[in-house]
Every structure is written in structure tokens, then in C-alpha cells.
């Protein structure tokens, strides 16, 4: 085990209260008698020596006494500051309970209230005032070996819109999952806020708001600042994976298209969402009996998430042998104006490849005409999968697959209960944020959570493990297929298209192996491939994974 994972190998640089104040090395009352003597802790701790199991019991008890989820979020953030290993062990061993508190849906509320619940600094902030100095500023970050950087500009946080610098909660939460789910060491993670202002008047008028107090930087000045940031990151941390998060659709696509073939990067809203959705689609065929290449899929929403899923589905259809033209015919998009068709003059560039030569129809009429097997919602608009929509899908399909992917829970296109009730229990329902089990007609329905947390940590781990130059579509296809293989028949019988979150470390490892293997096949890996093949690659990746135990 590395020095980073083993408190007992502290060299003596931290002693006494300084050691107890270190979230990295502190293990509180679990320091042994010998360690208390060695590190100047005698008299600073109660007599009894506890185990980490005891610490976990105490922490869970304190967590569960909190009345509101936002209070639990604050408690967990403070725990991360004072005892890092305990924080991550708590997540790993109680992931179903804690992931919704540090990620969706609670992270949405935490971002809205970020300036009001602020305790201590986390992450790296860049503003337009820093132009020309970003590289020198990066030297203020205390870590020399960053493996994963998550960056946002806060303009489109989940389905909540422009939250400015309050959006820092997203990179912080995403990187906590990189560590908990895939074992990227916490000190190898860098959360970044490109604080280029906000157009949210409520924030600008809030005296507690801590962000750049101006309207958003736009146009070439914005792109120049992003370019300087990326150049600085590449210079300081040349092997770091850069994940773009919660950018407004036009910027999300522009930045991805600019950098995807130049550096190791991906956009989780576009490509991560696509991988987890594709995995769910693949798994759904084991319930419905449909052949993948025969599917017709309709999207409500035509933004970055929806078209990102479409792009990966297109690649998957072509991998199955369909021509590009035939693959496009399988994918239909509907926005607030109706079907994306060729004679519309309001389409964005990422919509045009999916515009059909077809009559203009509204949503329900489009379902009746196209007869999709699968309905995917990525709108950020709650309630858009109405009773009529679900009932129409249920008339067309014996087992309609309904993906209500918008986050947080309050933004889901419909609830699990609605999907099951309106389909008389026949829907295969998946959401972006968690819903509890639903009892209907004497049967318990356990919906799946098509959460990006299933894929992005494993993708990142696999890319880092082989030092990939970039991440191509085949690596995302490999991640989706690897995730689908983790779904058991018991999972499918319960109605869920994803494995239990409790297995997330094993799932991330399987995805990392698949991603690294594909990187070697594509010639994108910079490390030599292990001589013993898959078994050796698995051992190599496992050895990289942080273990939060003392």
C-alpha cells in the first residue's frame, strides 16, 4: 500500500494538533498507543482507542440524526475535511444512502445555497481578472500529481440553470465519486470553477454571493480564457484527464469539438450520459426481446444530453452493421416545437444531423406515428411525460422503456410511481436521480437509476491507468457494453436496467478494464500493455485504486 494510503508511514512532518487537523492523515481516536507517543498525541485524545468501524458507526448515527438532506450534505462535507478516509469509507459501504446526499439530487440544493452554507475553501477558482496569470496561479494548488480535473462554468447546473460560482458544488461532488467509486486518490483530483460571471440577477443581488459580480463573459473573450486555462492545465498536469461539466449546450459542444482530439478530455453531460443511457438500452433488450438494430428510439429534448446519447447510439447502430442513413432513421428527436425535421429554420448545429424529411408533429402524435420502443427524456422540464404519453407508449409496446433522465429528482419528466401506474406496471422505468420502490397490484417495482456515476469514474480510471492520449467513441461504447454486462437476471427481474450501486467499485473496475483494453486496440494508450493480458491489466488497475481504511 502506498504512503498516501497508510497513516503509519507519516514521516513526522505532522505532529500533535497539526496532525489531528489534517483531513488526509487524521484518524482521531484510532491512533494506537504507539502512534500517540510517536506523533506527540498523548493528552490530546480520549483514553479509549477506537477502530474505524466504531468511527463509522458514530458518523452514521450523527448523519441520520440530521432532519434535512442539506444538513446531511453539510455534515458529510465537514467529515471530508477532518477525516478523509472515514468519509470515503462511509460512501463506499453505504452508497445507496449517501450518494444521493453528496450527488444528485441533494447537490442541486447545495449548489443553490452554496454561498450560504460555505464553510471552507475547496477547489480552484478562475475569473476574467486572472487572464494571463492562470498558469502561475496553478502553482498555488498544493498537489503536484493531478490525474483528474473536473471543470464547470456554472451556466447550466443540472436542470437548475445559471448558478454562477455556486456551481462549484458539482466538480466537488463529481470528484468525490471519482474517489469513492473508482479509487482515484483524492489528492489526484482537482475541482475547477471558471467563474466568468452570472446572468442570474438573484445571485448578483445576493450580498452573500461570492462569485465574479458581473454579467457572463461571452464570445471570443470567454473562449480565450478557456483556452488559457486548458493550456495551463496541460503544462502543469500533462497526464490529467479533463472532464467538462454543466456547460450550456452551445459552449459544451464547441469546447468538446475543439479539444476532444487534442487532449484527454470528455464532456460528461454529452458523452457520460450517452454511455449510461446506451447501457440501459442494451440491457432493456434482455427484457423486451428486441434486437438492438431494430430499435426505434425517441427523445424528448434536443439539447446536449439528448443529442449526445443520439451520437453514441448512432455509433452503436453502425457497429451493428447499419449504414449511417439507416442508423439515423432509428433516432427521432422532439423539442418544444415538435419533431426535429428538415424544413425547420431554428435548428442548432448538433440537431441538423437528426433532422428527418417528415411532417411536423407534436409529441403524442409523433409517438403514435413513429411507434418508438424506447422513450428518453432529457429536458430538465418536470411532468413532460404525461399520463397520455405513458399510456400511448403502453398501447404501442407490451413493455415500454421509459428513461426520465433529467436531474435532480424534482426535474424528472415523470416519477417512478406515475410511470408504473399509467402503464399498469408494464413500464421499464429508469431515471437520472433515485426513486424508491413502488408497490402496484401486489408487485414491487424497483426502478433503475441511469446515473452517470455508473460510468464516468470507470472511464476516468481506465483512461488514467493506460495514460490514454484521448477518449474516442469506441471507448465510450466499450464502457456502455461493460456496464450492461454487470446487470444480472435478478436485476432485470426486479425491473432495473443497472447493477446495484453497492457494487459500484466492481462496476467501475470492469469499465476501466474495458476502456483501457479499447485504448490499447485503438493505439491511444501511452503505457505499454501488460504482458499477461487482461488478468495483468486488472491487477495493474486494482493496484492504483485508493483504499480508505486505517
Structural features, described:
Residues 1-8 have low confidence and may be disordered. The chain is globular and about 75 Å long. With 550 residues, the protein is an alpha/beta fold. The protein contains 24 helices and 14 strands. Strands 8-7-6-9-10-11-14 form a 7-stranded mixed beta sheet, with helices on both faces. Strands 1-3-2-4-5 form a 5-stranded parallel beta sheet, with helices on both faces. Strands 12-13 form a two-stranded antiparallel ribbon. It folds into 3 domains: 3-94, Hemocyanin, N-terminal domain; 100-263, Malic enzyme, N-terminal domain (Rossmann fold); 272-453, NAD(P)-binding Rossmann-like Domain (Rossmann fold), CATH 3.40.50.720.
